[in-house]
Amino acid sequence: MAYKASHRFARIAPRKARLVADMIRGKSVDEALTALDFSKKRGGAYISVVLKSAIANAEEKNADPTKLFVSESRVDEGPTLDRFQPKDRGRAHPIRKRTSHIHIAVEERGA
Fold first, then answer.
1. pLDDT of the chain along its 111 residues, tens only?
2. What is the extent of the structural domain holding 87?
3. How many CA atoms does the CB half-sphere of 53 hold within 13 Å?
4. Partner of 6 at 20 to 30 A CA spacing, among 12, 40, 54, 78?
5. What is the per-residue DSSP string for 51-81?
6. Phi, psi of 106 (to 5 degrees)
7. What distance in Å separates the CA atoms of residue 79 and residue 71, rounded to the nearest whole number?
């Protein structure tokens, strides 16, 4: 049984968060948390919080935390906030502030 957690509308671009999400997929929970703690990427903080939430959801359902591994780590694209930067001679250049939906699922090994 998969235990899931998600963070919707996270203020980080999906392309940047996917680099970190791909790094932890398939690893045990302890390895994944250690990798996220030592990651220099900003997305590591977002994904770490979601992973801890998924672990807490699993413990709430009496799963053994030593047997958990990351079965799914996915980052979907959220809505984009359109902003404009004023430029010379009355022009405006668009700035796209992208958001992400981060989904993490953990399962027990051997179950």
1. 899 999 999 999 999 999 999 999 999 999 999 999 999 999 999 999 999 999 999 999 999 999 999 999 999 999 999 999 999 999 999 999 999 999 999 999 875
2. 3-108
3. 14
4. 40
5. HHHHHHHHHHTT--GGGEEEEEEEEEE-PPE
6. -120, 150
7. 26
